[in-house]
Amino acid sequence: MLRTAKLGEADRIITVLTSRTGKIRAVAKGVRRTSSKFGGRLEPFSYVDLLVAEGRTLDTITQVQTLAPFSKPLREDYSRYTVGEVMLETADRLVAEEKQPARRQYLLLLSALQALAGAGSSGSLPPAVILDSYLLRAVAIAGYSPVLGPCARCADPGPHSLFSVQAGGTVCEKCRPGGSVRLGEGTLEYLQALLAGDWEAASDADELSRSEASGVAAAFTSWYTEPGLRSLDHVQR
Known about the structure:
The chain contains seven helices and eight strands, in the order βββββααααβββααα.
């Protein structure tokens, strides 16, 4: 579940990312009433199995089964909760079309939330590391994979330590546009590990590399989700 919005006095519009039909919006009737039989299951971070009846303008949710309540462990930890909010907003922004298949984005978000909730093999990693990896990979799946190594403009093999968001990745000295940043030793390798989901390599990075990579991941994602992600302002890095 990505987000909810109030509808009328007792209903909600639920936005969900699904494995087969991408992003859908559906009405949950009476869900805001205390007597609702599945109100607590239809909250952001919930991993659920839905039965949906198609309608002319909006579908209607008729049954809900909880598969994994990610909301409970995330709401108990502010840092993990805010990171999760960024993930949900990113998925919502990158999967723009409703009812268009987006299985890779779905699987990536699911695995990231599992890791964030401590259910995955990377559960011991800091939330910011999981977030940075998720952001880079989500943007890559959307078709905007950052170039990490060769020059994004002239294809000089490099590796290059300058990074330009508007150029799409690392750039050489000759091609560097205004606003390029110079990455410290080890940051490029760390970014490559995050993009590949190489947790073993990522866990060895020092604090400077992690800090620089967080800035790159946030700026790069914001560039391709213009006007940027509002929830990023609340993340504690």
